[in-house]
Design a protein that fits this description.
111 residues, mainly alpha, 2 strands, 4% strand
Length: 111
């Protein structure tokens, strides 16, 4: 896969009840592998989620290095086993705050 082919998961997709987490995971892994392309890690939306999780970008990248898959990462973050549709109050605030950016990303990436 070339850098131009990389598209992270949709920011609205919720993993363990958190929007943006799957996208941040994809961007973090791409950053580590040098395939991030024009995307940015960490961006302000990543920082918002990292703050909620109590992590900085460097610590998150170290977790990604030690966790080969999403399941292992969720376990390391203490999120494995959470109901995937359980509402996390932070999630609603995030989706409202960034709704225009999420719309723009979706239009840009998926037409």
């Amino acid at each position: 896969m070339s850098n131009e082919d990389f598209i992270p998961r949709d920011g609205r997709y919720q993993m363990a009840g958190l929007p943006w987490l799957a996208r941040m995971i994809d961007k973090g892994r791409a950053s580590l592998s040098g395939t991030l392309g024009e995307y940015e890690f960490p961006c302000s939306m990543d920082e918002s989620l990292l703050n909620f999780l109590g992590l900085d970008a460097g610590t998150f990248l170290e977790l990604l290095k030690s966790c080969p898959g999403d399941r292992e990462l969720l376990e390391a973050l203490g999120l494995h086993g959470r109901d995937p549709v359980e509402k996390v109050p932070w999630s609603d605030v995030f989706l409202i705050r960034y709704s225009r950016l999420l719309d723009a990303q979706e239009n840009e990436e998926h037409g």
